[in-house]
Design goal:
Layout: H1 25-45, H2 55-66, E1 76-77, H3 78-88, H4 94-105, E2 115-118, E3 136-139, H5 141-147, E4 157-159, E5 166-168, H6 177-181, E6 183-186, E7 191-194, H7 199-211, H8 217-220, E8 234-236, H9 239-247, E9 249-255, E10 257-262, E11 268-274, H10 281-293, E12 300-305, E13 314-318, H11 324-334, E14 338-344, E15 346-349, E16 352-355, H12 358-399, H13 401-410, H14 414-425, H15 429-436, H16 445-470, H17 472-490, E17 497-499, E18 515-521, E19 525-530, E20 544-545, E21 555-562, E22 566-571, E23 575-580, E24 594-595, E25 607-613, E26 621-626, E27 630-635, E28 647-648, E29 658-664, E30 669-674, E31 678-683, E32 697-698, E33 708-713, E34 719-724, E35 728-733, E36 747-748, E37 758-764, E38 769-774, E39 778-783, E40 797-798, E41 808-814, H18 818-826
Parallel strand pairs: 8-17
Antiparallel strand pairs: 1-3, 2-3, 4-5, 6-7, 8-9, 9-14, 10-11, 11-13, 12-13, 15-16, 18-19, 18-21, 19-24, 20-39, 22-23, 22-25, 23-28, 26-27, 26-29, 27-32, 30-31, 30-33, 31-36, 34-35, 34-37, 35-40, 38-39, 38-41
Helix pairs in contact: 2-3, 3-4, 7-17, 12-15, 12-16, 12-17, 13-14, 14-15, 16-17
Length: 877
């Protein structure tokens, strides 16, 4: 056979190559992922707003209802129920179905359980339930209210997964299940976390909404004060509840219930009887034990779990002498005994996920019930009318019973009889069939009266149903009646207490009052360290490593503060921020610390000066000094309530920046010291107090190449310690500096040639210690009395031996009596302002106050015009 006889097949559209469809992979992935996401959102993780159920919950309850596993019947094996659900409606694995049924049976998971279980269904300690072959279940009566009227065509039925059966798309739900039991789930890109509520309160709240649709959330909270968790507890404050009810988002802080029991000589103990919702009791006890072991909570001698069938009871034994309230606060702070429930009222509404406030949740439930009752009433009315139609035929037949009997007897077959009845008596097929099926006992007089009575009753019911269907207002009255009945029948007392005042845990109760060294680097990394980290060294020692820094970073300032001090942080832009010393992370000696931007709400600015403050007193002032020699005095009380976004402290001229800030009482003399060793002493009364945002007045005049380095308060009985960048310094009596007028150049303090510029000038006493820190992080701690006393215009002595390229950047003074002074001042925190300054919201600052202008260019001062000649003092080496 030749090829001509059998030609090759032509390429047509039917060949495989013609069926290849080019697809854009980006579009295909996008479409496929969206389809997957919507499947998870709609069909798995997010509940329907109408019945408050996810598909697996709805299918489990419907399968139990369908198989007759109701509350008035014996329980059935869980495995049988799971098999029915999986085989008929939910082919996603038995584990997920059984976990769902178990959760609906746990009284600590559901405020109102929907499944009644026999056997081991897990515990609040996280114990797993027994296998499904051992446990048995049946519906709770409340769950049957969700399924009630299902047979009356109240909801739409859809095909199951293999289209062999049908299942309800939603349950009729007489009960507002989403509100009373809540729900939680994580979908794709969204999540829901709805808290449970008290059934009686919710029913009364919806009734109020039905009566007054314009009711406000605040009015509804008079009936529904907040969530009602199955494990009880106390909700702290109502702000989060109000936010959730108004917007659908909110945070609720819940505490367990704990009592302090005084046992006399045996000391005190804490008894925990309720824990927050979804907290694992066993893990809570384990966590407390670990905190005690790690010494994060001290004062607990023993912890026992004495819970039994009568209720939860955890006993925390305390050591003698400890403050029980502090220990309880620590438990609230460090353990889930105080937990936050983040409310997200996300539900499926018309096949779309939506976040709903409280009124919208009620509105959607009412809208669903209106539709259900309308369809139920139409169904009942139709069935009643059909029955009346049959009864009218029966009554007509009874009125002509002899003729009816004769007609039937004369007919050869039932079909012939049916046709004869329809023709002779004017009946339709339904009525004729009913007559043919009528029993002879219906011929009795009493039976005839029953038919008449039934007809009259059905006519009355038809009229009632017609009235309901005539007006939606009547349907809403039906909803109200049902809710009142359900609330009375199934409602119970509230378990979760609402505390209308949020009792904040005072950090001071958990922070030891002690002195620490605080350091700040040029890149704004801050840390605090224990003073015991640095032992004393003799003058001239090299010091030890105090901080690891990057090559481009160095320690810029260091000071001693108490852990309970407030820190006023002043930035390069002249703004002030508020911080607590204990909020600064404690770090090791070599640790870098934490970026201060993570502690303060900075806005493209750098912290340049940080000062500790113990009291915001009305008779105290903040004295500011800038690099260009400007000074400003502002009342301290104006900084007692900084805002979270900071406040304007002073106004700075271009190329100027803040150097130092001191607290003063307006009766002190001050000493300004420049980098090149000039010092000026004058009384602060020459500086008039100004409001915040002032520009200030000239403090000291300097050569253009010089800049201000230190602001020191003159103190009787103390001396001026001056330290240079190269680690040299000296003590000088304040009397060496006679007073000059503000705005002059002052006198020579220390010779800085080959010693680097002045880095610090501090007031010190004989018994004080100083801590010096270099740019590379080296720290030395030494006593002040080892530093020699010299006159003005001398070079000083070596205090700290410096490596090549390193320099001193910070000097902190540790006063001999600092502990006693701090304890004394701690009793007077707040002064006339108050105990604990609070963050204000952003608002208007004080108007600008320019003060005295600083000349743009100061004349160069010749060396011979300086007041003193050089005096070498002690040998450099």
């Amino acid at each position: 056979m030749t090829s001509e006889e059998n030609p090759a097949p032509e390429h047509t559209e039917e060949t495989p190559s013609a069926r290849v469809i080019p697809i854009n992979i980006e579009e295909e992935m996008k479409t496929s992922y969206i389809n997957y996401a919507m499947s998870v959102i709609i069909g798995r993780a997010i509940p329907d707003v109408r019945d408050g159920l996810k598909p697996v919950h709805r299918r489990s309850l419907y399968a139990m209802w369908e198989m007759g596993n109701t509350s008035d019947k014996p329980t059935k094996k869980s495995a049988r129920v799971v098999g029915d659900v999986m085989g008929k409606y939910h082919p996603h694995g038995d584990a997920a179905i059984y976990d769902t049924i178990v959760k609906m049976a746990q009284p600590f998971s559901y405020r109102y359980p929907l499944v009644e279980g026999q056997g081991n269904f897990g515990s609040i300690d996280g114990d797993a339930p027994a296998a499904m072959r051992y446990t048995e279940v049946r519906l709770f009566p409340l769950a049957e209210e969700l399924l009630s009227d299902l047979e009356k065509e109240t909801v739409k039925f859809v095909p199951n997964f293999d289209e062999s059966m049908e299942e309800p798309s939603v349950l009729p739900a007489k009960v507002p299940n989403l509100l009373i039991n809540g729900s939680s789930g994580i979908a794709v890109g969204m999540a829901t976390n709805m808290p449970p509520h008290n059934l009686g309160e919710v029913c009364r709240g919806i009734c109020m909404y039905l009566d007054h649709p314009e009711v406000t959330v605040e009015e509804l909270m008079g009936i529904i004060p907040g969530p009602d968790f199955p494990t009880g507890g106390v909700i702290m404050g109502t702000e989060g509840i109000l936010s959730a009810y108004q917007t659908g988002h909110g945070k609720v802080v819940t505490r367990g219930v704990a009592e302090i029991e005084d046992r006399g000589a045996k000391g005190e103990r804490i008894i925990i009887t309720e824990i927050p919702f979804q907290v694992n009791k066993a893990r809570l006890v384990e966590l407390i034990a670990n905190l005690v072991k790690d010494k994060k909570i001290e004062g607990i001698s023993d912890i026992r779990d004495e819970s039994d069938k009568d209720g939860l009871r955890v006993v925390v034994e305390l050591k003698k002498g400890v403050v029980s309230g502090v220990i309880l606060n620590q438990l609230y702070k460090h353990t889930p005994l105080e937990s936050t429930f983040g409310i997200i009222n996300l539900a499926i509404v018309d096949n779309q996920p939506r976040v709903l406030p409280l009124k919208s949740l009620m509105e959607e439930f009412v809208r669903h019930r209106v539709e259900v009752i309308r369809r139920r009433s139409e169904f009942d009315k139709r069935k009643a009318e059909e029955r009346v139609h049959i009864l009218l035929g029966l009554l007509h037949a009874l009125d002509h019973i002899d003729e009816v009997i004769a007609t039937i007897r004369a007919s050869d077959t039932a079909d012939t009889a049916r046709t004869a009845l329809m023709t002779k008596f004017g009946l339709d097929e339904i009525q004729a069939n009913a007559i043919l099926q009528m029993q002879l006992r219906r011929l009795a007089a009493l039976e005839q009266q029953k038919i008449v009575d039934e007809k009259e009753g059905l006519l009355a019911e038809i009229a009632r149903l017609a009235e309901i269907l005539a007006n939606e207002l009547n349907i809403r009255r039906e909803i109200r009646k049902e809710l009142e009945f359900i609330g009375e029948k199934y409602g119970n007392a509230r378990r979760t207490e609402i505390s209308h005042e949020l009792t904040l845990i005072e950090k001071e109760d958990m922070i030891e009052r002690r002195n620490v060294l605080v350091s700040l680097t040029s890149l704004n990394y801050i840390k605090r360290m224990d003073l015991d980290t640095y032992r004393q060294q003799r003058r001239g020692g090299k010091g030890i490593i105090g901080m690891s820094t990057k090559e481009e970073d160095f320690v810029e300032s260091a000071f001693v503060a108490n852990t309970h001090d407030y820190l006023l942080c002043f930035t390069s832009n002249g703004r002030a921020y508020w911080l607590k010393v204990y909020d600064i992370p404690e770090s090791s000696r070599t640790g870098r610390g934490k970026a201060i931007v993570n502690l303060l709400n900075l806005n493209n600015e750098r912290v340049t000066t940080v000062i500790p403050v113990r009291a915001f007193k009305a008779d105290r002032f903040l004295l500011f000094a800038t690099k260009r020699g400007m000074v400003i005095k502002v009342p301290l009380v104006e900084f007692s309530r900084p805002r979270s976004t900071g406040i304007n402290a002073i106004t700075l001229k271009e190329n100027d920046e803040l150097v130092d800030v001191k607290i003063t009482d307006a009766s002190r003399e001050i000493l300004l010291t420049t980098r090149k060793g000039q010092s000026l002493r004058f009384h602060e009364e020459s500086i008039s107090p100004r409001h915040r945002n002032a520009m200030g007045v000239i403090g000291i005049r300097m050569r253009p190449s010089d800049e201000l380095r230190a602001l020191t308060m003159v103190e009787e009985g103390r001396m001026l310690l001056t330290v240079t960048e190269s680690g040299y310094g000296k003590r000088t009596d304040f009397d060496e500096f006679r007073g000059h007028g503000r705005g002059t150049m002052g006198v020579r303090n220390i010779l800085t040639e080959h010693r680097g510029g002045v880095v610090a000038a501090k007031a010190v006493g004989d018994g004080d210690e100083i801590i010096m820190m270099s740019a590379s992080g080296i720290v030395i701690r030494t006593t002040v009395n080892e530093i020699s006393i010299q006159k003005r215009s001398t070079r000083g002595v070596r205090i700290m031996k410096m490596d090549e390229g390193d320099r001193v950047v910070g000097v902190a003074v540790l006063q001999e009596e600092i502990e006693g002074e701090l304890e004394e001042e701690s009793e007077d925190i707040g002064g006339e302002v108050g105990e604990m300054p609070a963050m204000d919201e952003p608002g208007e600052d004080f108007p600008e106050d320019s003060g005295e202008e600083l000349p743009e260019d100061l004349p160069e001062v010749p060396e011979e015009d300086l007041e003193d000649e050089e005096n070498s003092g002690e040998d450099l080496e």
